Amino acid sequence: MNWLTNKIITESKSRYELIKCLVSREYSAPLGADVLYKARGQINGKIHDEPWVNDEQLKELEEVFQEVAISAISKKLFVETHLESHIFYELKRSSKEKAANYISEILNEDNGVIRVAEIIANSGSDSTKWPMFKLMKNIF
């Protein structure tokens, strides 16, 4: 799906508007996360494609995505899939501060540790193939 999305955006004359539409919808948050990752990589030189957006547009897209990502995760729209952690980690790349504040708020709720584990549960597996994650203070 990513290759098709990338092709459509690349060939579009309205790239910014198309990307904004993707990152603005809660139900397309996983795809929006992928698109934002690529757009950011184009701007900062990690991906050597022609940039889809300029710096100012990227900043606006980041802010829109951050709000949408927090909302999608809060509503547990993707809790049954690996996509919730995918959205969260893109939120963290977009704004470490907002991601850290969000995790802090969750940890202060009843069963907060369990919810944090749900959000980042699909981060890996140990040698017995059980889900695991590593939460380090210097990251959050």
Topology diagram in text:
Layout: H1 2-11, H2 15-24, H3 29-44, H4 55-74, H5 83-94, H6 96-107, H7 112-120
Summarize the structure.
The protein has 140 residues and is mainly alpha-helical. The chain has helices spanning 2-11, 15-24, 29-44, 55-74, 83-94, 96-107, 112-120.
Question: In words, what does this structure look like?
Answer:
It is a single chain. The chain is mainly alpha-helical. The protein is built from 7 helices and no strands. The chain has helices at residues 2-11, 15-24, 29-44, 55-74, 83-94, 96-107, 112-120. The longest helix is centred in the middle third of the chain and has 20 residues, at 55-74.
Low-confidence stretches: none
Shape label = elongated
Largest sheet: none
Question: What is the distance, rounded to the nearest whole angstrom, between the alpha carbons of the first and last residues?
Answer: 31 Å
Count the helices. How many? Answer: 7
Q: How would you spell out the order of helices and strands?
A: HHHHHHH
Task: Please describe the structure with a list of short key phrases separated by commas or semicolons.
140 residues, mainly alpha
